[in-house]
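Renewal narrative, Specific Aim 1. Our central claim is that a sequence can be written position by position from structural information alone. The example that follows is taken directly from our test logs and has not been curated for this report. It begins with the structure tokens describing the chain, in the order in which they were read.
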């Protein structure tokens, strides 16, 4: 019986190509910081090194702490996450141009709420919460749709590490047999959580394949997600 659904964001609920999104993100934030005298190439280097450090996080610090430590060291500054709120509330919103199609989720999440299904937004926690919330807004996803939203402030691991999922499962004392993961990345959303015995449903619109993946799985179009979940829950999973 499914009681909890983990939803990925980018390439799943949010119809974007992640490579295109990353390109536009790096362009916008480097241009933003260039206004304050920072070299664009150095900013990109600091961002990549900070992200790399988050992927290597051993769980002793939050991803925010790990990222800001490396980012500040390279730029020789003492930034905090709050310093970037103006960027995420302004220039960052330009990234909506990367959205590939219009889609609404009110009916789906109202149905889940009526069915007593808890939704968790399990987006790769390499961004601050404000960036995640604003990105959700591109397709009308509301914060109160979710019991939990992962971000770099509340996470100690990243996707690509099964401990990322295990941290949330343990935090909320979830039964893994009652969890369904909905994602689009064979390695991050299928293989890693599959190690924990969690069921998966893959979204194929922006499917990211992995040559080492040999796990059979069901995949659907994002447009069919609401109908598939309704059928799945109606049948008692």
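The sequence written for that structure reads:
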């Amino acid at each position: 019986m499914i009681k909890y659904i983990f939803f990925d964001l980018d390439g799943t609920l949010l119809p974007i190509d992640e490579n295109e999104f990353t390109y536009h993100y790096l362009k916008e934030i480097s241009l933003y910081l260039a206004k304050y005298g920072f070299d664009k190439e150095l900013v990109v280097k600091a961002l990549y090194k900070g992200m790399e450090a988050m992927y290597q996080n051993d769980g002793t610090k939050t991803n925010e702490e790990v990222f800001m430590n490396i980012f500040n060291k390279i730029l020789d500054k003492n930034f905090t996450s709050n310093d970037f709120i103006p960027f995420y509330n302004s220039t960052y919103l330009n990234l909506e141009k990367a959205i590939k199609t219009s889609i609404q989720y009110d009916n789906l999440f109202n149905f889940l709420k009526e069915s007593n299904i808890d939704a968790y937004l399990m987006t790769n926690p390499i961004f601050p919460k404000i960036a995640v919330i604003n990105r959700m807004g591109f397709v009308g996803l509301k914060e109160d749709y979710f019991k939990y939203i992962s971000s770099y402030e509340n996470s100690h691991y990243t996707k690509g590490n099964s401990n990322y999922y295990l941290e949330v499962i343990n935090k909320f004392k979830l039964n893994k047999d009652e969890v369904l993961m909905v994602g689009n990345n064979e390695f991050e959303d299928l293989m890693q959580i599959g190690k924990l015995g969690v069921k998966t449903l893959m979204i194929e619109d922006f499917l990211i394949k992995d040559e080492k993946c040999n796990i059979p799985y069901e995949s659907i179009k994002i447009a069919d997600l609401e109908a598939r979940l309704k059928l799945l829950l109606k049948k008692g999973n």
